[in-house]
UniProtKB/TrEMBL annotation:
One of its GO terms (molecular function) is tRNA binding. This is Probable tRNA sulfurtransferase. Catalyzes the ATP-dependent transfer of a sulfur to tRNA to produce 4-thiouridine in position 8 of tRNAs, which functions as a near-UV photosensor. Also catalyzes the transfer of sulfur to the sulfur carrier protein ThiS, forming ThiS-thiocarboxylate. This is a step in the synthesis of thiazole, in the thiamine biosynthesis pathway. The sulfur is donated as persulfide by IscS. GO terms for cellular component: cytosol. ATP binds at L183, L184, H208, F209, R266, G288, Q297. SUPFAM superfamilies: Adenine nucleotide alpha hydrolases-like, THUMP domain-like. It catalyses: [ThiI sulfur-carrier protein]-S-sulfanyl-L-cysteine + a uridine in tRNA + 2 reduced [2Fe-2S]-[ferredoxin] + ATP + H(+) = [ThiI sulfur-carrier protein]-L-cysteine + a 4-thiouridine in tRNA + 2 oxidized [2Fe-2S]-[ferredoxin] + AMP + diphosphate; [ThiS sulfur-carrier protein]-C-terminal Gly-Gly-AMP + S-sulfanyl-L-cysteinyl-[cysteine desulfurase] + AH2 = [ThiS sulfur-carrier protein]-C-terminal-Gly-aminoethanethioate + L-cysteinyl-[cysteine desulfurase] + A + AMP + 2 H(+). The gene is thiI. Gene3D superfamilies: 3.30.2130.30, HUPs (3.40.50.620). The keyword Cell wall biogenesis/degradation does not apply. Pathway: Cofactor biosynthesis; thiamine diphosphate biosynthesis. Its main location: cytoplasm. Keywords: ATP-binding, Cytoplasm, Nucleotide-binding, RNA-binding, Thiamine biosynthesis, Transferase, tRNA-binding.
Length: 406
């Protein structure tokens, strides 16, 4: 184990002027909760970066965990040394010797972050490079296209050496762009939409409509599993609202307007979700809709459905193809759960030909004719169950105090 730290770089996105401080704090929170199971790591920060000290733990599992977090541009495992020539050379030798595949060509790139260091960057490239070349007779320098780039970051407190720059997921740290409700079905699309919204820094509370006993306990377990998977990405608990939808659905199905059932169901879902959003301080609703995918996702359908709420509807998958969505679902680890067969409430009363072009006046008239629709919506909101789902990882430990960022 040669690496003693991992450096985490935010990238440019986080450097948004006034918000910077808040973004950095969110990032730190996220890293802390995600790494809570790795007992023994400690943290410190500097301008635009975070460092995770490994304290003897292997770096791969930790780096893999960090890679899945939001708001990071890249990370590198580093060896740190004293900021002194012989120490830096020795660390460079350790790093080069540790490479699994001995390279034929390399170059040294020194960045002198601390201007008090006596040797200039160019001079240091030679001082370190020549030292390596003496030890590896088969190795040569290639400044244009080296197999290995040995980077040396000279700072006052220490010098950091690394060869790998592992790209991370990008986006914004979780929760740095406010909160939205995610309409989470058991399907392929909505978990992907949730992940994309989270990646953009939205805090998410999931809302699932069930028609128990028409929908099974397994259908609920499936949604719980999906929500837990989403929680994994920010490393902290996620709230799931389970809304009883049986009465509303059955009533809507009895109106003699079969081709409008889905339209009206979706509108009822939005009205309920809006109330849950207001109660929980959320300012938007995320759905897994994709333009033209099914009858309720044509533009005329979305127009009629969307008018049921004043909140912004966020649809990350709107312009994506199904294949793209599926490959993202596989990448984020929700696909296998999503394709489990259990019935969703919307497939229950699926009419033969759901409208692709619903008439707003007819929809409003039918809805107005259901005397107790508003009451049923209130009841559904009131009877909504809440679950706090923890990601599948050991419980975060209480902060012991020694691993402070500050
Ligand atoms: P998904 O794969 O996400 O289920 P879909 O392509 O099957 O999407 P629909 O069933 O028409 O499409 O649903 C469109 C969107 O409505 C879903 O992406 C989801 O955001 C929301 N939705 C559908 N059913 C439910 C449900 N039972 N609970 C919560 N939200 C739902
Ligand atoms: Mg669906």
């Amino acid at each position: 184990m040669i690496y003693d730290q991992i450096v985490l770089r935010y990238g440019d996105l986080i450097m948004k002027g006034r918000n910077r401080n808040q973004f950095e704090k969110r990032m730190q929170q996220q890293v802390r909760s995600a790494l809570a199971p790795f007992k023994g790591v400690t943290y410190w920060k500097t301008y635009g970066r975070l460092y995770v000290k490994l304290n003897g733990l292997p770096y791969e599992p930790i780096a893999n965990r960090i890679k899945d977090l939001f708001g990071l541009h890249s990370l590198s495992p580093v060896i740190s040394s004293e900021t002194e020539l012989e120490a830096i050379r020795a660390a460079a030798m350790t790093l080069m010797t540790s490479l699994k595949q001995p390279p034929k060509t390399f170059k040294v790139s020194v960045k002198r972050g601390w201007k008090g260091y006596p040797h200039q960057s160019q001079e240091m490239n030679h001082l370190v490079g020549a030292h390596i070349l003496r030890a590896f007779p088969d190795l040569s320098v290639d400044v244009r296209n080296p197999e290995v780039e040995l980077r040396v970051d000279i700072q006052e407190e220490a010098t950091y050496l690394f060869c790998e720059v592992i790209p991370a997921g990008g986006g914004f740290p979780y929760g740095s762009n406010g909160k939205a409700m995610l309409l989470l079905s058991g399907g392929i699309d909505s978990p992907v939409a949730g992940w994309m919204a989270m990646r953009k820094g939205l805090e998410i509370e999931a809302v699932h409509f069930h028609s128990y006993p028409f929908t099974s306990e397994q259908a609920k377990d499936k949604v719980v599993a999906l929500a837990k998977r989403l929680a994994y990405y920010h490393g902290a608990p996620l709230k799931l609202h389970l809304v009883p939808f049986t009465d509303i659905q059955t009533t809507l199905a009895q109106q003699g307007q079969d081709n409008l059932i889905i339209t009206m169901m979706r509108r009822a879902m939005l009205r309920i979700t809006e109330q849950l959003a207001v109660r929980n301080g959320a300012l938007g609703i995320v759905t897994g809709e994709s333009l033209g995918q099914v009858a309720s996702q044509t533009l005329p359908s979305m127009n009629v459905i969307g008018r049921a709420t004043d909140l912004p509807l966020l649809k990350p998958l709107l312009m994506m193809d199904k294949e793209e969505i599926i490959s993202l679902a596989k990448k984020i680890g929700t696909y296998d759960t999503s394709i489990l067969p259990y019935e969703d409430c919307c497939t229950l009363f699926l009419p033969k030909s759901p409208s692709t072009n619903p008439n707003m006046h007819i929809v409003e008239r039918v809805e107005a004719g259901i005397a107790n629709l508003n009451d049923m919506i209130e009841t559904a909101v009131r009877d909504t169950e809440r679950m706090i789902l923890r990601p599948n990882q050991p419980e975060p430990e209480e902060n012991a105090g020694e691993d402070s960022w500050f």
